[in-house]
Amino acid sequence: MDRLDDLTVLVEVVDGGSLSAAAERLGLSASAISRRIAQMENRLGTRLLARTTRRVALTDAGATFCLRARAILAALDEAEQALTEMNEEPRGTLRITLPVMFGQMLVAPLLPSYLKRYPGVTLEASLSDRNVRLVDEGFDLAVRIGRLADSSLIARRLRSMRRRVVASPGYLERHGTPQVPADLARHDCLTLMTGSGRPEWEFLVDGVRETLRPNGSFQADNLWMLRHAAVGGLGLVRLGDFIVEDDIKAGRLVPVLTAQELTDEAIHAVYPATRHVSPKVRSFIEHLLAGLAGLADGEA
Predict the structure, then answer these.
(1) FRET pair for 7, CA 20 to 30 Å: which of 33, 46, 140, 258?
(2) Strands 92-98 and 141-145, bridge-based pairing
(3) In this protein, which residues make up the domain named HTH lysR-type (predicted)?
């Protein structure tokens, strides 16, 4: 077996929930599967699976590796499938779900040209900031912002992203500029309303993640309203760069704590793992990539 076979073995073990299930699907013995996993772990220098008497589960390192493995296998499938589908036009209903602000600001302008190019596709777009369960809710594709945790989905990176903490020049003149995340305890922080209380803001301090729950006098369930509140001088807000980039360039908002911003977040298109990706899903992802390519990476 080569390394691509190794990736297939790992994904089959995860999907089947056990070594024996993967062995049955691949036509191998359970001992052969166990040996392949052990060889991978030795080569990588880390444990990928946590084994129990009944089933196996991914370690944190295994979850990250499995996510990449699925993407590699999916890319190979897509390359092979593309050769046989070069003349197949995308068609049918494509159901997508998008974060509200990203959908409104960056995706909506790209939709007319997509539908003109592929008249056989009927597009249904839902804007929501909640983490939609694609298969259960019947969606073909989602755009997700931030670090991905679900290794059962295939992910295609669309662009990088940073969450910027910003405030108006007037607010900073009146209240001072925070120098470290702990200083936020003395500031008015504008936060997004969630069902689990005030959201956490994450920072990277001396190479270590630091999490805090900021407090303030204003909350909203809409990011654009929070952006308006910050421009109006009500306090500090933490928003994706694509939302506030124009305000920063125009001087309406000033970024703070820039040295502590996280650098490992991105925006991905995700879709359920299948043997073959439909032309409508593939064409839409490629259209997004082409449309966003005109923007500098990490800028709106």
Answers:
(1) 140
(2) parallel
(3) 1-59
Q: Best-predicted range by mean pLDDT among 79-83, 84-88, 296-300? A: 79-83
| Four-way CATH pick for 3-82: 1.10.10.10, 2.60.40.10, 3.20.20.60, 1.10.3210.10 | 1.10.10.10
pLDDT at 52: 67
Contact 7, 72 (CB under 8 A): yes
Instruction: Decide which of 3.60.20.40, 3.10.20.310, 3.90.1100.10, 3.40.190.10 is the CATH code for 88-159+265-292.
Output: 3.40.190.10
CB-based contact 203:261 (threshold 8 Å) = yes
User: Which residues make up the CATH 1.10.10.10 domain(s) of the chain?
Assistant: 3-82
pLDDT at position 297 is: 43
What's the pLDDT at 298?
A: 41
Which helix (H) or strand (E) is 254 found in, with range?
Answer: strand 254-256
* Angle between helices 30-44 and 19-26 in degrees, nearest 10: 110
Mean pLDDT of 230-251: 96
Q: How many CB atoms lie within 10 A of CB 185?
A: 12
CATH code for the part of the protein at 163-260: 3.40.190.10
* Total residues belonging to the chain: 300
